[in-house]
Amino acid sequence: MTHSTAGIRPAAVAGTFYPGSASVLARDLRRLLGDTPVTQETRERLDGRPKAIIAPHAGYVYSGPIAASVYAPLHALRASIRRVVLLGPTHRVAVAGLALPSATAFATPLGDVALDMAAIASVAHLPQVVVSDAAHAMEHSLEVQLPFLQTVLERFTLVPLAVGRASAAEVAEVLETLWGGDETLLVISSDLSHYLPYAVARKTDNETARHIVALDAQLDHQQACGATPVNGLLLAARRHGLQARLLDLRNSGDTAGDRSRVVGYGAFAFTPVNTDAH
Fold it and tell me: What pTM did the predictor assign?
């Protein structure tokens, strides 16, 4: 069992979901991000500054290329994003509500990421927000996003929330409280379908992607393991006039797995609707 010491939540899945060596991890991230050039077409598809993203959370060999497609464009915002609000589903420990850790930093092989204690205090009073170190101790859905963020951004603080049994409205309320301005990026960690045959998964994930792009907050957990935080983001995005853009949609059969049972991965960016008349 991995325990936090001196207020730092240690990396739990370094060496399994991604390399445990800082130099190997940095090299792999450079390769993944370098293989995802930010083209003019990508900029046009983004059509603005991302306020929120959805990225997958499997082992990098499986979902890393898809995650890279939504992280690479954030490099252009590296100097202005100062806070990351990171939500992902709980996989190992059941929790009622959205769980904060008691830690003051999260560690990865690339270094420690300080938690934003003022931002955390701003949501700690909400009835759906709890503190659970157990929910965070071995949870990979949040951790695997951190090395990408550490690579594409400069200095940022973190608000990590492990989402258990909660409503989309409860998630949206937390996001509203933490919304901030251009300094705050919202990151939702979610994979899509699980263990379907390749062709079935492609059809299922395409339908799920259509719902996300339409800001239709009715996803279930067969469509996305992070359906609860995704639905909460979709509610908040609609309220704030954001539009969703699909940047990548593949599955483990496309990257590193066989095609008999695959896991789906999608990368989405949410930007303000362009009101320019031109």
Answer: 0.95
Tell me if 111 sits within 8 A of 150, measured CB to CB: yes
Output phi, psi for 228, to 5 deg.
Answer: -65, -55
The three-state DSSP-derived secondary structure of the chain is CCCCECCEECCCCECCCECCCHHHHHHHHHHHHHCCCCCHHHHHHHCCCCCEEEECCCCHHHHHHHHHHHHHHHHHHCCCCCEEEEEEECCCCCCECEEECCCCEEEECCEEEEECHHHHHHHCCCCCEEECHHHHHCCHHHHCHHHHHHHHCCCCEEEEEEECECCHHHHHHHHHHHCCCCCEEEEEECCCCEEECHHHHHHHHHHHHHHHHCCCCCCCCCCCCCHHHHHHHHHHHHHCCEEEEEEEEEEHHHHCCCCCCEEEEEEEEEEECCCCCC
**Which amino acid makes up residue 253?**
G
- 261 by Cβ neighbours in 10 Å (0-12 / 13-18 / 19+) ranks as middle
Instruction: For residue range 24-74, list pLDDT tens digits in order.
Output: 999 999 999 999 877 766 776 677 799 999 999 999 999 999 999 999 999
pLDDT above 80 (res 1) = no
Residue 162 β-bridge partners: 88, 99
Predicted pLDDT at 5: 47
